[in-house]
Structures are given as C-alpha cells and as structure tokens.
TrEMBL record, chains A, B:
Presence of the UniProt keyword Amino-acid biosynthesis in the record: yes
UniProt name for this protein: Branched-chain-amino-acid aminotransferase
Enzyme type, top EC level: transferase
Gene Ontology molecular function: any one: branched-chain-amino-acid transaminase activity
Organism: Elizabethkingia argenteiflava
Keywords: Amino-acid biosynthesis, Aminotransferase, Branched-chain amino acid biosynthesis, Pyridoxal phosphate, Transferase
Cofactors that this protein relies on: pyridoxal 5'-phosphate
Domain of life assignment: Bacteria
Catalytic activity line of the entry: L-isoleucine + 2-oxoglutarate = (S)-3-methyl-2-oxopentanoate + L-glutamate; L-valine + 2-oxoglutarate = 3-methyl-2-oxobutanoate + L-glutamate; L-leucine + 2-oxoglutarate = 4-methyl-2-oxopentanoate + L-glutamate
Statement: the UniProt record of this protein carries the keyword Amino-acid biosynthesis: yes
InterPro entries the record matches: Aminotrans_IV (IPR001544), Aminotrans_IV_CS (IPR018300), Aminotransferase-like (IPR036038), B_amino_transII (IPR005786), BCAT-like_C (IPR043132), BCAT-like_N (IPR043131)
Matches recorded under Gene3D superfamilies: 3.30.470.10, D-amino Acid Aminotransferase, subunit A, domain 2
Modified positions (N6-(pyridoxal phosphate)lysine) in chain numbering: 189
GO biological process: amino acid biosynthetic process; branched-chain amino acid biosynthetic process
Length: 356, 356
C-alpha cells in the first residue's frame, strides 16, 4: 500500500453542524487500478480527479458497482466499522454479475481501515453522526465495443454525515414500474439499477409519495424492496420480510434486523409478502407497521401507502410500541459502541493501522 | 455552436485497412454541458479528456444512455447519415426514462452534421466502410446522494469502422438470465443494460455460443432480442419479429427491415414469438432462417441455437435464398447511396454545413 498524504488538509472547513452530505469529501481517497488482468498497487492519496474521455467504457456500457457503509466514532473517540466483511462479499457478488474483476480483502477491508484511520479526524462525534463510505469499481478503458472492459478502477471515497431524523414517509406500491428482472441484476449494487429507479420515483413524488414499494415485475403481486431499502411488514406481532433473491439486494441492515428480532424472541417470517395480504391486514386492522431498512437511515417507518389509486393510512405506533424503532435503537447502540455487541458485528479501526 | 478546430490533426495515422475499431477517434468531438436546469452552448472541439472524481454520479448511479449510428461515404465522396431523426427520438426516450434532460434537435441532429462535416476526411470510402458515431449523455455532478444528477454532459464521439464480414453465429436461448424487466428500462439504450448482459454472454460463450437470444424474464417462453440486435425468424416464407415493448429496444435496423420486406411483398408478422413455435418449426423442417439486426453488422445470420442443453443446427440458405442477405444488401445499398431510397432515409451531410 502506497500512502501519499495531503499537505493541504481541508478539515478546518468542516462544520459538523452544517455538513452538506455527499458533497464534502475527506482529505484522502483510496485508489487501485486494474490492467493486464490484475490489480495494481493500492494507493491512498489526496482526494482528487482523474482524466477521462467520453469513450470511457463505464459511461457507455455501465460496468460500475458500489457499496455504501458507515464508520462511527464512540464517546471515547474510538472508530468502528459495521460488518465490513459483508460489504466486501457483496461488492464481489456485484462485480461478478457485471463481468468485472473481484477485489481482494487487502484492497477492500484493509484499505478501508487504513483510509478511515488516516482521516479519523473527519468522523464527526455524537449521536447519529457518522462517516459515509463509498467503495466503487468502474470500467475505465476507452473503447466503443459493447464488451467487458479490460481496465477498471477501484476507489473508496467518504463523506461525513450528520444525524438525520427520518420522518415517516408515504410509499406507493408499484403496479407498473419495476426495479429488477428475474435472471437480472437486482441483487447487485449495480449503478444501472439506481438510474432505472429515479423516473418512477419522480412519478411517485408527483403523486404525493416519497418512495416506491417495488413489486415483482411479472405480477406486481408481491413486495420486493422499498426505494433503496429492504422492507419489513408487521401484522399483529409477527414480522414479515421477503427472502432475498436474484431480484432483491441482500441488505446488511435487513440481515441485522432479522438477527436482532430473533434474539428478542420476536416471530420473524422470511417469505414472499403478497400485496393482497398487506391490504387485507390493513382492512382487518391487524397491520401494525411497515418500514424500510438500509445503511443510510437505519430504518424509516411508513405512514401511508398508495395502491390502485387509493391512499391507505397506516397506524402510527408510539416509539415504545414500534418494533421498527426498538430494533433501530438497538442497532444504532451496537454500531456506535453504546451497547454490547453479542454478534461481533463491530470492527474497531485501530489507531495507526494505516502505518502497520 | 462554438467550433474550435484542432491544430494537430491525427488523420495521417489513419490506416484504412488496419482500423482498430472503437479505439481510434476522429479529430473532433461535440460536447454540451447541462447545469442549472439548462443546456449550455454546443462546442465542437479536439477529441480529448475531462477531469472527474470517483464521486461523479454516473459512475455511482448509472445515469447514462447512448446512441449508435453510422455515416457512409459514397463513391463520389458524398457523406450520408441514416435516419438520424430516429436516433434523436430514441436518445430522448432513453433520457426521459433515466430521469435525464432531453437534448435538442440542434444539439443532436445539427451538431452531428457539423461534426461529421468537419471530420469527413476520416470517413473511409468503399464497400462496408463507415464512420461509427456515438452520441451519449451522462451524469457529471459529484455527489453521493442516490438521486438524479443536476449536471450532465452530452457528447458525440466517432470512430472509423471497417467493413467486417459477419459470419453466421450460434446463439443460446436464455432460460435463466434476462435483459429486461416488465416496467423496466429494456427499451432504453441505457448504459446499465449492457453491463447486465456481459456475464450471461460470457457463460454462453463458454458453452460454445457467440450470442444469447434473450427471452421474457417471466416465463422465458418468448423471443425478445439477440445480443444487441433485434431478432427475425423465418418459417416457410413468413418473417416473424416480436413487437417492441418496454422490454425491447426499438431498433432502427429492425424497422427498416420490416419496411423493406413489406415493400417486396414479403409476409411480415409482428407478434410474440414463442420459443416452442420455433423449436417445433425446426423439428418439422419449416424453419428457414433466424437472424439478428442492428446498426453495427446490419444483419447476422444464425447457424445453430442452443435450447435446454440441446444444440439445434439451422439450415444455411444460399445468399440468393436468404431473406436476411437480400434485405441486408438492399439496406446497405440505400445507406451507401448505391440504390434508390424510396423512403427518404438517407440524409446528406452538406459540405461546409458546419460553418453555415
Ligand atoms: C436497493 C437497495 N436495497 C436495500 C439496501 C439496504 O442495504 P444495506 O442495509 O446493506 O445498506 C440498499 C442500500 O442501501 C439498496 O440500495
Ligand atoms: C439491445 C439492442 N437491441 C437492438 C439494437 C439494434 O438497434 P439499431 O438497429 O437501432 O442499431 C441495439 C443497438 O444496436 C441494441 O443495443
């Protein structure tokens, strides 16, 4: 690993209380380039730019995938990652499906720790604050043939993130648009999946809904995901979530919610969720809550859902009654080292690890 | 339109008989940038590079779409585009579905003519030669939020293309992987669609097939497209091709083949093609030919098809008997101004139009 530190830190400009998320970047980034069938040396260098022409293959054929994860600083200033091995495994699943080279543990996990160690001062401390981390791989060869690229870049960039309150949202159950095909790339964190979701989401926004609940494309009869979150439905005291499949992203927050719920003795059913089952439960008054989960917001409750032109209001439980809130609190406690971690999910970023 | 000509033409390096397609670019490119809700001025400038950071939105969220078209030089040195209005319409359909700004006719059609006019010397003359032209739009804002970008670049780049003989290929009928979802983006020339196809195509290659025949993702029971071509099936003397839909690219070559076949009085049925119908026709000996069509190769005949572990050999008609070959010859004749153009498909690029 080559470490080239900046002589021009921008950290004095960081105003923790006015972070513009996603457009303020930490001083450094990690970069590694692939050529002639292999990855080159991992470099940590000042955040900055490269040059490209409009022939860069990922602009034309979309070979690009990414991860989204966070680092948390506890009250003593220690820094933790959350289940980074899961993101490492997932980016390689995405890469494989897009015919891109997989990255090594050294590049991803060790590189990540070194980068976070070097820029640990950028991680804001305090309830809900974190460092949002974006590893990505994209095709860099400049050529116009519709085939897989021979050159790639792996990069890790990161942006400080403030706590943000996620107010309950309204969601539209999709009965026309879909996110993923059978035998497609829905399980991959492929760049192209996100672009495909923006227009349907705009239409949902215009109809008065913040998010979409994606359904299966063949029948639109089953819940799949919600926006960029996995989805949970609670009927009476049972929690339902769809099984992951080649159409559904295998979310790390989803997996963590399932584990936490089971440990509490809650009943968790991982099975297909028919839209009609949810609509019926709503009618019968047994539908207690629906929520989405993902790294960005941890969890976000739904207050209404649109279906076939109707807007169905969901009950709003108190924080004490809500499974979504209880599990969220517990997960945040584990992530930020305020609570015991029975699963071994937290990974300490040792001080000085970049230089070991 | 701002025209900034290069003082360093590379054209003396162009060796018509050894063109490395897709990686040799003409001297100039067209560029136009979108910001603050509108497109800026169209610029024609020396082909070259821009700078980007790994936060560039199209690398992360895949907002990128493109077109593929050709310019042809006739024996007198006149240069023609082929149905450029169709590409203009299609790129805007793609852009809309990906929540990207549409481009104007001035940017696309007039810009294209000016660029081709300026670099007309780069278009190789002679049977089958052409200039391959790649207009594209991609998101350039640098931010990590999963939402549509506020900044875009529209660019047109081009590469001289030599004649290439398209030998008949073997194709695998997909019974697991798919290219597009119902309510998805299959009809768009979205960058992400291509990345999604590479891995299944690699698997097909390993199984001894050059291309895939994509089927519908819900049942895998119907033909959709083949590789990056639309598909035609001939049973006895009737030609079948699937209707375009939100899953199938509305190919310009496909449309032209249909028109040409109808004008010749051939029977053309635009309807769903069940895989079983084709397999049965093969068994009964009534299946005459199958071929794909697209701008790159015009048309490519299939010599075998794989289905459920079996490899079915297709008849190989003589060029005279083959509808695929006859229609291809006629289309090439029109494109390259060797034949009358009853449809008005050819568009002359006037000399000096860039400076008008
Ligand atoms: C489509 C989609 N589904 C679900 C998730 C949730 O995954 P995770 O919990 O790993 O962040 C994400 C990412 O945030 C996503 O992009
Ligand atoms: C997926 C796909 N289908 C079909 C085609 C054929 O379209 P056209 O005839 O407009 O080139 C293309 C582009 O070449 C394509 O990428």
């Amino acid at each position: 690993m080559i470490i080239q530190k900046t002589s021009n830190s921008r950290i004095q400009n960081l105003d923790k209380d006015n972070i513009s998320f996603g457009s303020t970047f930490i001083d450094h980034m990690l970069v590694c380039e692939y050529e002639n069938g292999k990855w080159g040396e991992v470099r940590i260098m000042p955040y900055g730019s490269f040059s490209f022409s409009p022939a860069m293959m990922c602009l034309n054929y979309g070979q690009a995938c990414f991860e989204g994860m966070k680092a948390y600083k506890d009250q003593k200033g220690q820094v933790f990652l959350f289940r980074p091995e899961k993101n490492f495994e997932r980016i390689n699943k995405s890469a494989k499906r897009l015919a891109m080279p997989e990255v090594t543990r050294e590049m991803f996990v060790e590189g990540l720790k070194a980068l976070v160690d070097i820029d640990r001062a950028w991680i804001p401390q305090g309830e809900g604050f974190s460092l949002y981390i974006r590893p990505l791989i994209f095709a860099t060869e400049e050529a116009l043939m519709a085939r897989e690229s021979n050159k790639y870049m792996f990069a890790i960039i990161a942006s400080p993130a403030k706590a943000y309150y996620s107010a309950p949202v309204s969601v539209l159950i999709s009965d026309y648009y879909s996110r993923a095909a059978n035998g497609g790339i829905g399980f991959a964190k492929a760049a192209g999946n996100y672009a495909a979701a923006f227009y349907p989401t705009q239409l949902a926004n215009e109809a008065g809904y913040e998010q979409i609940i994606w359904t299966d494309d063949a029948t639109h009869g089953y819940f799949e995901e919600s926006g960029t979150m996995n989805v949970f439905v609670r009927v009476e005291d049972t929690i339902y979530t769809p099984p992951v499949s080649e159409r559904i992203l295998d979310g790390i927050t989803r997996d963590s919610f399932i584990e936490l719920a089971k440990r509490r003795g809650m009943e968790v059913v991982v099975d297909k969720i028919p839209v009609q089952f949810v609509i019926n439960a709503h009618k019968e008054g047994t539908l207690k809550e629906i929520w989405g989960v993902g790294t960005a917001v941890v969890s976000n409750r739904f207050k209404a859902m649109g279906y076939k032109g109707e807007r169905l209001t969901l009950p709003l439980l108190s924080d004490e009654e809500s499974y979504a809130e209880n599990l969220k609190k517990e997960l945040i406690g584990i992530q930020s080292n305020q609570q015991e971690d029975p699963f071994g999910w937290r990974v300490l970023v040792e001080e000085g690890v970049a230089h070991k």
